[in-house]
Amino acid sequence: KNQVEQSPQSLIILEGKNCTLQCNYTVSPFSNLRWYKQDTGRGPVSLTIMTFSENTKSNGRYTATLDADTKQSSLHITASQLSDSASYICVVIRQTGANNLFFGTGTRLTVIP
Amino acid sequence: NAGVTQTPKFQVLKTGQSMTLQCAQDMNHNSMYWYRQDPGMGLRLIYYSASEGTTDKGEVPNGYNVSRLNKREFSLRLESAAPSQTSVYFCASSDAANPEAFFGQGTRLTVV
Asked: pLDDT tens across A12-24, in order?
């Protein structure tokens, strides 16, 4: 069964601190993995994409890692800001099939001053 | 660029009423999707359309119908709304050449 699991479900951190969000998946055959940020009341917006051959990719203060062997990904946020408060959703894309997007339930991050 | 546009943004319905949620994309994408998002749950696929003229059921299609009017537009219809359909609905589009999904801003629907 194709599944995407994220942890933790929610997280509260102080402004300026770092944090790491986890994503484990069983989707096969794997094409790529994306992390989305969803602000309250808005649609998800793509942060970064990881393909099978990529281990690490950065987008500003966001760094995503992928271990395709263990089927795990992480999103590390450095020097958090209040504007980082949002839900972060891991989406795994399968190579085949018209319906090829599989969503995690997300991690709700709250950054407090 | 407008991207994916959904209307309306908010809607309150009485049980048994019908309504259509509209979605349009201007990126010339082949695939379009309708999702619902409920507290504590991930985005769940209601229906999708891999190309103009085709539609397929997703994970939670009961109580909904869709129409892929043309390549740009994909509408979601509730024929007889039920309180269990209270949710936030998102439309998305993607293309095989670049399978990133682009999302609309969402429609918050309350059925009383």
From this structure: 999 999 999 999 9
User: Residue written as tokens 């946020």?
Assistant: A77
List of chain A residues whose C-beta atoms are within 8 Å of the C-beta of residue B56: 98-99
With beta carbons less than 8 A apart as the criterion, state whether B49 and B75 touch.
no
Cα of first residue to Cα of last residue in chain B, in angstroms, is 36
Task: Summarize pLDDT for B41-76 with one digit per residue, the tens.
Answer: 788 999 999 889 899 999 899 999 999 989 999 999
Contact flag A101-B94 (C-beta cutoff 8 Å): yes
Longest dimension (CA), chain A: 45
Q: Which tokens go with A94?
A: 């399968």
Residues ≥6 apart with Cβ < 8 Å to A12 = A109, A110, A111, A112
